[in-house]
Amino acid sequence: MTMRRKHSSMTLLEKRSFRNGLLFALPWIIGFLAFSVYPLCMSLYYGFTQFNAVTTPKWVGLQNFQWLLKDATVKKSLMNTLFMAFVSMPVNLFVALMLASIVVKDFRGRTLARTFFFLPSIIPMVAATMVWIWMFDPTYGYINNVLSAIGIRGPNWLIDARYTKWALVLMGSWTTGTTMLVCMAALQEVPVSYYESAEIDGANGVQKFFRITIPCMAHVLVYQAILSFINSFQYFQQVYIIVTANSGTKMGASLGGPQNSIMMYPLYIFHNAFTYLKMGRAAAMAWVLFVIVAILTVILTRISRRVNENAGVE
Amino acid sequence: MKKLVSLLLALTFVLSLTTGALAADTREHITFWYAHTGDEAKVFEDAIATYNASQDKVFVEGVSTTDTQKLIVAMSGDSAPDVISASNQQMIQYVANGLLDVAQDYAEKDGFALDIFSEKSVEASSVDGRLVGLPIEAYSIQMFYNKDLLEAAGYTEPPKTVEEMYKMAVAVTKLDAEGKIDVLGYPLFPYASARQELIYAFGGRWWDENSNLTPQNEGVLASLNMNVKYRQLYGMEAVDAFVSTANTNRYTEQDMFFAGKQLFRLDGSWLPTMMQNYGSTVNYGITFVPGTEANPDLRGSSRYETTCICMPSMGQHKDASWDFTKWMATEGARIENLGTGNLPALKALYEDEEILAKPGFAEFIEALKLEKGVQYPVMNDFNEYVSLINTALDEVYAGVKTPEQAMADLADQCSGLN
Predict the structure, then answer these.
(1) What is the model's pLDDT at position B213?
(2) Would the CB atoms of B305 and A250 count as touching at under 8 Å?
(3) Contacts of residue A260 in chain B, CB cutoff 8 Å?
(4) Which residue segment(s) compose the domain that B192 sits in?
């Protein structure tokens, strides 16, 4: 009502301006409706159907969601994904923070070191994963050769279900260049006077790090943690390449790695949609993922806001 | 002056349009998506070019894509290809989902005789007794063995039974100083062969002739128990390490069989050509997959797969598509088989001198003539079943479950599949 009144009270110029604005935005609006809103609505509908992408969807009510609750691989894939979120995220953040703490210091070759640490982040994921598959090779791989040199017999990283996820964590820690840059910027923002005061009070390096550095950049760390956490739920490319490289042809290795140990939730959605041609199940899984991520985002945003308030950041 | 330039430009534009229209190909254009890449894609392109050169009515545009996701998306929209190549395994799934026309309908209308194809290839390419796609190539797996390794262990003949094979495997397996396997005797790699031919050799079947699922079959359990026995003898981790490395280097210059580090290898007809291309000097022989002492007739059992030329049901140019489909499965098949090193489905090519001259083909064609190919079941959820089998086998190989436990669990898990 208010809007209508407001609209009718527009001057001719305002109306024309409003119309022109709408016309300019129209291509985006059409794109948004066609490529975001429509697929979103359709995927919700497909979640309640039996659908193979080609024939007419058949309404099955809550059947796909009931299957979700019963299927052991859904549970396993969710647990694997949560593992990556809760283990890989802190490891990556820690590595990025350590690297940032090193390259923020003034030393000879600092630029080279920054480039060196950032470089892995710009290597295409497919190429990087293929290289890692070679590095993880139990016989000729670089990692096991290094371990062997110091007297440790390395595991079968990508074939032993006990180590596959840890191999992914290791891989992930290699590509923390972007987070390192953000942490580096945050480190440079910490006032030098704080450190000077702490030195006068006799604080050592560790105390300065935990009492000054970490609290001062907590808001940045929390923000990065939220991003990494949400990204963990979209973990797909690396595992897809690993299992595809391992599976050979047809009745090869498992689609989710040894004993489905690296079957991530998005990978299982993909297989339901395109390997098993069960789009209805895939759509239902995608909506459950959406709800989980939405809830977690709300929780993490609240945490972030509280941290920002404590840090005095708007 | 400006007017003159504009006039000239307009005239040039109209002329170019007219010339383009006049020069345009009036043949009916169809698209053919094939799932081969690299050198094999070139072979397909050569075949397509030969067809196009012979045509004044149809023009085929070939597209190489191994991306099944892209194919499914195309078939679900209005950009479906007119003709595709698909493995018989994929084909069964596509038919179950209503994505393909039945080739036999076209063949009957056209009077195209289907008995030119081998019986097994027709069987493999049929669903509910109707031929869905025309078979262009066949896959069978047989046993390659390293003659030098076998002779060094005191054997002059390759094994005819799995019991003999096990003894030879143990005699040849070598460990290095660190306990890692240097030479693998038992054919646990490639994964797919260990999970199919090594099962079929014991008479094991994952499904019966009526497509009922039979994971607790005696042969399956016997095969898995021998597999586990070998693994336990050398250590699960040592075997897995070898298999993992073998997998990373599969079909490369460092392939374990090409490098003389595998005694037995259950693999396809393309292996000799690959070995030749990589300059492998391994002195190898080819023999049938063994049977058992109790049932020597099982010898030569292998999966039997075909690649078929199929017509998606949503394709637009049916007559032109059928014309190309039957050409590709006959004249095109010879070009394809010779170029890719895959076995023929056409019976006439079994006696073709050029085909028989390809390394390993004579032995493989002998195996095909045995007609002991194991066909895939006709079921909607086949891919899901395969996933469940693979996961169950992972558990057996890792020692998490005994074969009996794993197969009993698998039987429970697959009870809802259809």
Answers:
(1) 95
(2) yes
(3) 391, 394
(4) 154-288+392-416
